[in-house]
Amino acid sequence: MSDLLERLRGRGWRMTAQRRVVAEVLDGEHVHLTADEVHARAVAKLPEISRATVYNTLGELVSLGEVLEVATDKRAKRYDPNAHRPHHHLVCAQCGAIRDVHPSGNPLADLPDTERFGFTVSGVEVTYRGVCPNCAAA
Amino acid sequence: MSDLLERLRGRGWRMTAQRRVVAEVLDGEHVHLTADEVHARAVAKLPEISRATVYNTLGELVSLGEVLEVATDKRAKRYDPNAHRPHHHLVCAQCGAIRDVHPSGNPLADLPDTERFGFTVSGVEVTYRGVCPNCAAA
DNA sequence: ATCCTACAATGGACATTGTCCAAGTCAAGT
DNA sequence: ACTTGACTTGGACAATGTCCATTGTAGGAT
């Protein structure tokens, strides 16, 4: 690491201890954390970091396109640090675990003009639902 | 209306004024309402209905497969009464409007076994993101 | 090296959405 | 009409997220 910090600095981000810690948490974990989980891990490295700062920083990272928001269920948003390789998600309906997957087709091509209703379509998210091996065994 | 009420009665649902009102709200509107919007419309027809009952009833409708939950963003879940015709969603990134769409491909077929990680995959949701004509004009 | 200042962090109040529960109410079968 | 168990109620509570006035500080300017 960390290309991420490099890129951020290059974009004129003011580098603070808090932002570094949040970026490191995301960069290190290749899972999809909730804001609260990010906060918990950040606190472990920098005890006095506040919740608001974590939320702010996550929001900024999303705006910058460095991190993706994933809203697979009603519960908390999750943050996906793998923003630079397009991929989709496979979610366990029971335990909520998320895996990145790379399907073969291109769903954007599957939406004909007649189904676009004048929208300027800019992206697509595909969420597969199922039951993971662990939960199936239980 | 209302096949919905018929089906529910057929399944042994105890028919109460509250449930009828919630079902009517969903049946009448072919948009995707949040729980609070459903509650607001229900209150207009039956002022003393409580929020808890609306949540309960929506949850039951979802369990029965009569209504779909849609979690397109971090905000409230939306309820889609169009549960019997498979379709996907096109969401305006600015105003949050949702349109039902019917893409041509079958994304389930696009997920090879090697990308399933032992999951039993049971379904897929596709959410197209874009800007609607109204918001684009503004 | 020090100072300035705009930008960032803090933390606590507040907002929104959803869940839970004990008590009261009522639909529907007998 | 009675009875009963399912349904509703309302309010407390929980989880997640936002806002804002105040305080702190990174990084350029001197």
Automatic annotation (TrEMBL), chains A, B:
InterPro entries, per the entry: FUR (IPR002481), Fur_C (IPR043135), WH-like_DNA-bd_sf (IPR036388), WH_DNA-bd_sf (IPR036390)
Keyword annotations from UniProtKB, A to Z: DNA-binding, Repressor, Transcription, Transcription regulation, Zinc
Protein's UniProt keywords contain Transcription: yes
UniProt name for this protein: Fur family transcriptional regulator
UniProt superkingdom: Bacteria
SUPFAM superfamilies listed in its UniProt record: Winged helix' DNA-binding domain
Pfam families the record matches: FUR
Positions of transmembrane segments: none
PANTHER family in the record: HYDROGEN PEROXIDE SENSITIVE REPRESSOR, ZINC UPTAKE REGULATION PROTEIN
UniProt record similarity statement: Belongs to the Fur family.
Organism this protein belongs to: Streptomyces galilaeus
